[in-house]
Amino acid sequence: MAGKPVRLHKYLAMAGVASRRAAEALIRQGRVSVNGEVVTAMGWAVDPDRDRVALDGREVRPLPPGRLVYIVLHKPRGVVSSARDERGRVTVVDWVLARGGPPIRLFPVGRLDFDSEGLVLLTNDGPLAHGLLHPSHHVPRTYRVLVQGAVDPPAVEALERGVRLEDGLTLPARVMVRKRGRAESLLDITLYEGRKRQVRRMCEAVGHPVLRLVRLSLGPVRLGRLAPGQWRYLSGEELSALRRAARLPDVRQGGRR
């Protein structure tokens, strides 16, 4: 028995691929097919029970109600930490989708600079994202940072105490010097807030510009051995720990982790 026909752009939105407006753009670009035939006309209707709808050759289906997805990505340099980019650069969402990720409308939790690397969390769980980013929750973020010059104790103390930036004094940080050389030093820096390009600005303020920056962890979730460009689903244990960090009840909902 055939299902109730649904407009193609609405079907794509129901699948979590994009908003209805963005789905219309995908159709006009010739990226959507129905039963193997590319459709570019607006207003096309599909039968959810019989028709096969694909985006860039990959079948998409409407999501079960309430399905939440959590992905950890090791963002490489040169990828944008956003769901879309007006300049047409590759985003973290594009990167994961092109490498077997679910065709679901995801967004990154927080940002990581274009030239930085490391852990980025992607999800469609708005309350969790809000809780992790809320300024009063002070969820820790740890970065491995290669900087210019030999970082001396006064510079470390300044970073740990708080640095005066153009947007105010930073919160106290935790700093571990892993290697100190004449030309370069390697630090692990843990922050308890998330300002734009904060690590880079702090290091610059104490006279040690950043050469390379890798985010190692967000709250209890660690990058581990995930290689640059690789991604994985969050484990149930990690999700429970993240929810505690975000001060949310530990209730596991349906969907892959």
From TrEMBL:
The keyword ATP-binding does not apply. Pfam families: PseudoU_synth_2, S4. Transmembrane segments: none annotated. The lineage of its organism: Bacteria, Bacillati, Bacillota, Limnochordia, Limnochordales. One of its GO terms (molecular function) is isomerase activity. CDD domains: PseudoU_synth_RsuA_like, S4. Residues 6-64 form the RNA-binding S4 domain. Keywords: Isomerase, RNA-binding. It comes from Carboxydichorda subterranea. Belongs to the pseudouridine synthase RsuA family. It comes from the Bacteria. This is Pseudouridine synthase. Its EC number is 5.4.99.-.
